[in-house]
Specification:
Length: about 200
Amino acid sequence: MAAIDFDGRFVAVLAGWEGSGHDNLILRKVLEKGFTVPEGRYYLVDSGYPNTHQFLSPYRGITYHLAQFRQRRMENRYENGEELFNHRHDQLRNVVEKAFGILKGRFRLLKDMHQYKYDFQTNIVLACCVIHNFLIRHPNSHGDNLPEEAYSDESDDSDTDDPSTSGVGPMAASSRRTDAQRGSEMRDKIRDLLWNSRCGDAES
C-alpha cells in the first residue's frame, strides 16, 4: 500500500503484503504502525476502502473510471452530482496510477523478483520508491527516458466491499459509524459544491 502526493512522490509505503490482501486490512496495519492523516486533510482512496472523513472514496455503483467518461458526449457527460464527483475524484487519484506506472517503468526489476528472498524483495521496493522520489525532486540530475506506456491514465477496477473488514483501525463499531457518517457528510458537501458550481457556469 502506498500514499502518493500530487507531485507523484511516495509519502508512505507498506511493502510485503500478498496481492490477495484486502485493502482495509492493509490500511488497518498501516494505521497501527503509526501512519496518520493531518488534521483537516484527507486521502483520496479507491472504492476498495470505506468512505470516512480521512479516506474519501468514490460513490459506489456510479460511473467512475476516466475511460467511461471519455465515451460520453461532452454535453451530456454527467447525469447527477455523484457522477461529477466520481469523475473529479478519479482525475485527481489518477496520479496514483501514473506514479506506479513510472515506478515500474524505471525499475523493471519490480516485475520479477522471485530470485530474491522475501525480506530483500521488500527492501528493493522501498529503495526504488526512495530513488523515484529523488528523481522527481531533482529531475535534471539524471537522464530518465521512460516508455510511453509508463504514463498510464487508467484507474484500477477495484469495486469490492468486504463487510468483515469494513472498519479502519482498531475502533469500536459505534466509532466506525460516526466516522463513516462524517465521511458521507463531507463527500456530499463536496458533491453539492461541484454540482452547484457546474450548474451556475451553465446558466451564466
